[in-house]
Design a protein that fits this description.
transmembrane helix, mainly alpha, Phospholipase_D-nuclease N-terminal
Length: 147
């Protein structure tokens, strides 16, 4: 127990957890940006980099891009099927977004718990994203539901 205002040393687990969390956040931002740029370019957008910046740095950018993409407003059909890089970027972006949302939804209100919950949510989110995004399982589910 620290005495007289002395600062205690943080545990190595906390330092490693924070580093992994920061790496996950940076990789999420990069994968979202990469996927949006490649997808917008494949759909014939005149400003794919602007879409990526909006998707990454504004809270409404990604939902608005997905809305426009779904409704085909200014974004047409893909000229070619998604490549492996497109599917990997989309899978990583979906998994990391799901992990951050799951962690923030279920974690108690302290920063370390958010960090731990987000990291715990990432593995199941990555498996789900692999099945739904990379393998195209969302198409099967959308066809069965009628979307």
């Amino acid at each position: 127990m620290p005495q007289n205002g002395a600062v205690s040393n943080p545990s190595p687990v906390a330092g490693v957890s924070f580093a992994v969390f920061a790496l996950l956040w940076v990789s999420m931002v990069l994968s979202i940006g990469l996927w949006v740029v490649r997808d917008a370019r494949a759909r014939g957008s005149g400003r794919p980099k602007l879409w990526a910046l909006a998707a990454v740095f504004t809270p409404v950018g990604l939902p608005y891009y997905l809305y426009r993409r779904r409704r085909r407003v200014g974004l047409g059909e893909r000229a070619a099927p998604p490549t492996t890089v497109d599917r990997l970027a989309a899978t990583w972006a979906a998994a990391s977004l799901a992990a951050f949302f799951g962690g923030s939804l279920f974690a108690p209100p302290d920063p370390f718990s958010l960090l731990v919950y987000t990291l715990a949510f990432f593995v199941p989110a990555l498996v789900s994203a692999y099945v739904l995004v990379y393998r195209g399982g969302y198409r099967v589910a959308a066809d069965r539901v009628g979307l």
